[in-house]
Design a protein that fits this description.
Layout lengths: L19 E13 L4 E7 L2 E7 L5 H9 L5 E10 L14 E12 L16 H6 L1 H4 L3 H23 L3 E2 L16 E4 L7 E4 L4 H9 L4 E9 L11 E10 L3 H20 L9 E3 H8 L12 E3 L10 H8 L3 E8 L5 H13 L6 E5 L5 E2 L8 H10 L7 E7 L1 H15 L10 E5 L4 E3 L5 E3 L10 H6 L8 E6 L2 E8 L4 H10 L4 H15 L6 E7 H8 L30 H7 L5 H9 L11
Parallel strand pairs: 3-5, 6-9, 11-17
Antiparallel strand pairs: 1-2, 1-4, 2-3, 4-5, 7-8, 9-10, 10-22, 12-13, 13-16, 14-15, 14-16, 17-20, 18-19, 20-21, 21-22
Helix pairs in contact: 4-6, 4-15, 7-11, 13-14
The protein binds one RNA strand of 78 nucleotides through strand 1, strand 2 and helix 2.
Length: about 600
RNA sequence: GGGGGCGUGGUGAAGUCUGGAGUUCACGCCGGCCUGUCAAGCCGGAGGUCGCGGGUUCAAAUCCCGUCGCUCCCGCCA
């Protein structure tokens, strides 16, 4: 057996002075003074300074001249205290150094395609193409460790609470509802396809029927939709479900998970209990179902103030059932042009218009619409918005969802969290069964297995019916959602019907599942937490790619491996699949697409 | 499907608005000097088809059109 090392360099301290050690790692930096030379040796534990002195180790000194950045090396030497005046208080290993006796090159390295230096943020495609080098950087290595710590903390809470880890299939049947499925063709059944799971939803419910009672899984999930900074086609969730459980049980467990994770990664305790807010309250105060409550700037209801306004826009809006909402965005130092841009932005977001006012030093209000408003309306506005001189007030008159939606978006654009490392967890509860779709109609807000508070209410008052579902929000990001599930097959059938899924459709797609519900299904509830988003926020990263070891680009490509790639005709033949001629024509037109290699 | 931004030696940027010699800065690389540095220092050097294609012009990194790649956002994500 070859011994590569007896210690990890980053763990050496003053206590180790005098010890003979063998270390192995990478050359993070080399400082060659012609005679004595220094190497910053990096391994998974950190960095320690290696000293090579030609008087003490002439052969090693020769080897050192050949070293370049990121060579993989092994050194044997003695730990010693650094001479007075040369200690480095910036490094945890800064009091000591290792005097080299033997220096071996385990593996040479080519000149790097980019510098592993946090001073430079190299082009991301290049970083992804050489991800194995990118991951050597401190920031990336720290993100990998944080991700591991998050999952470790999650497992700890789940195991402590008696949850059973169960793996569910990743080759499942496709259901056309919801997001697009990632499809996998079947060779044994040509022309048929598996889908990669969007979530283990139905399998975990089957586990409840199976009597598992407490289930969890660190589950890879797939949704074939367009990418965002917080969305990749494959992502990881902590998926959990429990029987004889209700919303309170789930939220209590989620709180323990959040607390455990933050303690593990940040070393601090979050305030408990995690605050709760109803969906309606969140929409009214923040214009979104995932409010960032790290800063105030809440939306104000101005209906009473402008109830009998003579300003045509307000009066007409009121008459048509609309509402007037305002937002005090503080002193933004906006110019006329700046306000004009906000007005354009509001219109892009769907508002009919946006009115702005600035409170002058003497308390008067400057605004293009000031002349249409009575003086008591203006003073009432200033007091309702708790406006100080210099503050800018934005007002939208529209239907409720447009008004709060537009102001909620402007709030996010103009507001600033007080401290960037704050963590504000929040539960949003009492979601509606249906939400307002872009076309003005109603669309199901959740998957069809979510229990309504009252089925009849769902049928008779779809616009106000509430479901037993809940979200967890952190710093304005949706971390996950869950619900109490339907465990009664009769209720499930009715819900399908109300959602517009015909009995035939329901039977064809979910018959196997509905049948399972008929064998003594316990009441159950569950949740899924997005691991990537959680880690990204904890690490102050702007997107989830930074906390995924091998993520894909926005167009779903992996610059390192070349995935997705074409496959040869023989493979397609076996699958009973043919690529359409017009698609092949586009292949030859574009030369940047990956082509399968001749070998293999 | 739509809107915005970016693409300049190996890396990161400035230059582009207002066309005038591939100009500049930092890092890296190569060579030399240097025995206490720690983002070592000093001296010297090499290295670019300004993403790609077309157009305008006496002249294009710069203006126009197209295209490719990346990215942010909207749609989408039950």
């Amino acid at each position: 057996m070859t011994t590569y090392r007896t210690r990890h360099g980053g763990t050496l301290r003053a206590d180790d002075v005098g010890a003979e050690v063998q270390l192995a790692g990478w050359v993070a930096r080399r400082r060659d003074h012609g005679g004595v030379a220094f190497i910053d040796l990096r391994d998974a534990s950190g960095i320690v300074q290696i000293v090579v002195n030609p008087d003490e180790a002439p052969a090693s000194s020769e080897v050192l001249r050949s070293l370049r950045t990121e060579f993989c090396i092994s050194v044997t030497g003695r730990v010693r205290a650094r001479p007075e005046g040369t200690k480095n208080p910036e490094m945890v290993t800064g009091e000591i150094e290792v005097a080299v006796a033997i220096l071996d090159v385990l593996s040479a390295a080519d000149v790097l395609p980019f510098q592993l230096d946090d001073r430079f943020d190299a082009d991301e495609v290049r970083r992804l193409k050489y991800r194995y080098l990118d991951l050597r950087r401190d920031r990336m290595a720290a993100n990998l460790r944080a991700r591991s710590a998050v999952i470790r903390a999650m497992r700890h809470v789940m195991e402590e609470r008696g949850f059973l880890e169960v793996e569910t299939p990743t080759l499942v049947v496709s259901t056309p509802e919801g997001a697009r499925d990632m499809l996998v063709p079947s060779r044994l059944r040509p022309g048929q396809f598996y889908a990669l799971p969007q979530s283990p939803q139905l399998f975990k419910q089957l586990l409840m029927v199976a009597g598992v009672e407490r289930y969890y899984q660190i589950a890879r999930c797939y949704r074939d939709e367009d990418f965002r900074s917080d969305r990749q086609v494959e992502f990881t969730q902590l998926d959990l479900e429990g029987s004889f459980w209700d919303q309170e049980g789930v939220l209590d467990t989620l709180e323990a998970i959040a607390a455990g994770v933050v303690r593990e990664v940040r070393g601090v305790d979050i305030p408990r209990p995690i605050p709760r807010m109803t969906y309606n309250e969140a929409m009214t105060r923040y214009g979104t179902d995932k409010p960032d409550v790290r800063f105030g700037m809440e939306i104000q209801n101005l209906d009473e103030l402008f109830a009998d306004s003579e300003f045509r826009v307000f009066a007409d809006n009121m008459a048509s059932g609309g509402t007037v909402r305002g937002l005090n965005v503080g002193n933004q130092g906006l110019s006329r042009t700046g306000f004009d841009k906000l007005v354009d932005q509001a219109k892009d977001l769907g508002a009919k218009g946006l009115f702005w006012m600035v409170v002058e030093q003497n308390g008067s209000v400057r605004s293009p619409v000031a002349k249409f408003l009575r003086s008591e309306e203006l003073t009432g506005l200033v007091s309702a918005m708790e406006a100080q001189p210099g503050d800018a007030l934005l007002v939208v008159a529209d239907d409720f969802h447009t008004a709060v939606g537009v102001l909620g978006q402007l709030r996010l654009d103009l507001g600033q969290p007080a401290r960037h490392d704050d963590l504000e967890f929040l539960f949003i509860v009492d979601f509606p069964v249906f939400e307002h779709a872009a076309d003005g109609g109603l669309a199901p807000a959740h998957h069809p297995f979510t229990a309504p508070v009252d089925v009849e209410e769902m049928r008779t008052s779809p616009d106000t019916a509430i479901s037993k579902s809940y979200d967890m929000v952190l710093n304005g990001a949706e971390l996950g959602s869950g619900s109490v599930r339907i465990h009664d097959p009769e209720v499930q059938a009715q819900v399908f019907e109300i959602l517009g899924i015909s009995q035939e459709q329901a039977q064809a797609r979910f018959g196997w599942f509905m049948e399972a519900l008929r064998y003594g299904t316990p009441p159950h509830a569950g949740f899924a937490i997005g691991v990537d988003r959680l880690v990204a926020i904890l690490q102050n990263e702007p997107n989830i790619r930074e906390v995924m070891p091998f993520p894909k680009t926005q167009t779903g490509a992996d610059p390192l491996t070349g995935a997705p790639g074409r496959v040869d005709e023989g493979q397609l033949e076996e699958l009973g699949i043919e690529v359409r001629a017009d698609v092949k024509a586009e292949w030859s037109a574009s030369q940047t697409d990956a082509v399968p290699s001749e070998s293999s």
